[in-house]
Design brief:
With 362 residues, the chain is of the alpha/beta class. Helices cover 33% and strands 16% of the residues. It has a single domain, classed as Metal-dependent hydrolases (TIM Barrel), CATH 3.20.20. The chain starts with 7 loop residues before the first strand and ends with a strand. It binds (4S)-2,6-dioxohexahydropyrimidine-4-carboxylic acid and zinc ion (ZN).
């Protein structure tokens, strides 16, 4: 399809398989933006303060999210920590928790309680394999551990391979993949290894992320050729690659008042996630990286909705759809709480995007 000139399209409700919804007032502001951006199914990250390391904490959090957005299906995760034992995994499976997020200690926001030595968790991974929980990887090594000239993500890829070889039946997601090498590494694994691709990594590169706090995130956007590999993967029709926005809100003041390069990591896309994916793809066509023929209805539906649901063993459709129409709408600069005490800047503020209307199943 010719997205650039297309006036109207209909898509199934998006499944966003990687979201940060925070807590407190920030949560109250962010959770409603899921549906604004066309999402009715979301896989929720556990990097709260304190991190969600017990099943009871996860279930309590899920209750709070459901109270704010009763129409959204929240898939929940535990934060991998020494207290997450094989017994915890059994309890998590019984409670309907679907994944466990591994943060290398010190790699990103709220990862201080993360994993220092992956091998110490092999019993937990074996239990996850047995109970069919998904392992969600923040696939980056610490800066000190990456060889010169290798990105933090590329240096992590051998660990992905080792984990897959050791636990062949464990479903693994390489979250927010950002490099051509990661795309290849995921393709080389069996069908139970997949990867999420964000909206912002379809349009940002290191040249944006270096200097604009609202484009800075972890993993950091890479070279144009890496971005282009992600665009191609997103429209490849390969079900291993599905949408996970990694939308990560931070107070606008923390972004604007930090010294250059010191802003907290995270790009906030949630209120327009579906539209931002479409914008990234449209720009990919304009640059000649992907073609209009790549943008079929089937491939868009697969990437934005069906493949993620399939990987998480959900029905492939929720029955809800989205009507997207060109009406000259522009991305608002920020979202805020009623009192104005919480404000978050939105990625690509001012860009013209499709307007979104829900078509809910009867
Ligand atoms: O940019 C990021 N922000 N990357 C992450 O891994 C965490 C996230 C956050 O929680 O802010
Ligand atoms: Zn994340």
């Amino acid at each position: 399809m010719q997205l650039k000139t297309l006036q109207k399209l209909e898509l199934p409700a998006a499944a966003d398989m990687h979201v940060h919804l925070r807590q407190g007032e920030m949560m109250d502001v962010v959770v409603p933006t899921l549906e604004q951006g066309g999402v009715d199914t979301a896989f929720v990250m556990p990097n709260l303060v304190p991190p969600l390391t017990t099943v009871d904490q996860v279930i309590e959090y899920q209750g709070k999210l459901r109270a704010i957005a009763p129409n959204v299906h929240f898939l929940m995760s535990l934060y991998l920590h020494p207290s997450v034992t094989p017994e915890t995994i059994e309890k998590a499976a019984q409670a309907g928790v679907v994944g466990v997020k591994l943060y290398p200690q010190g790699a990103t926001t709220n990862s201080e309680h993360g994993v220092a030595n992956i091998e110490a968790f092999y019993d937990t991974f074996a239990a996850m394999e047995k109970h069919d929980l998904v392992l969600n990887l923040h696939g980056e090594v610490l800066e000190a551990l990456a060889p010169e000239g290798t990105t933090l993500e590329e240096a992590f890829l051998p660990t992905l391979k080792q984990l897959h070889e050791r636990f062949p039946n464990l479903r693994i997601v390489l979250e927010h993949c950002t490099t051509a090498a990661a795309v290849e590494a995921v393709k080389a694994c069996g069908s139970n290894v997949g990867a999420t691709i964000t909206a912002h990594h379809l349009y940002l590169t290191e040249a944006d992320a270096c200097c604009d706090p609202f484009a800075f995130c972890k993993p950091i956007p890479k070279k144009p050729t890496d971005r282009d590999a992600l665009l191609k993967a997103a429209v490849s029709g390969n079900p291993k690659f599905f949408f996970g926005s990694d939308s990560a809100p931070h107070p606008i003041t923390s972004k604007t008042s930090s010294a250059q390069g010191k802003a907290p990591a995270g790009v906030f896309t949630q209120p327009y996630v579906t539209q931002l994916v479409l914008l990234g793809l449209e720009e990919g066509v304009e640059r000649g990286i992907i073609s209009e023929e790549d943008l079929t209805q089937e491939k868009l539906e697969g990437f934005l909705s069906k493949f993620g649901r399939r990987f998480y063993k959900l029905p492939e459709t929720s029955g809800n759809s989205l009507l997207l129409e060109r009406k000259g709408e522009k991305i608002a600069p920020s979202v805020k709480s009623e009192s104005g005490s919480v404000e978050v800047g939105v990625s690509r503020a001012g860009a013209e995007v499709f307007s979104l209307t829900w078509v809910r199943k009867a």
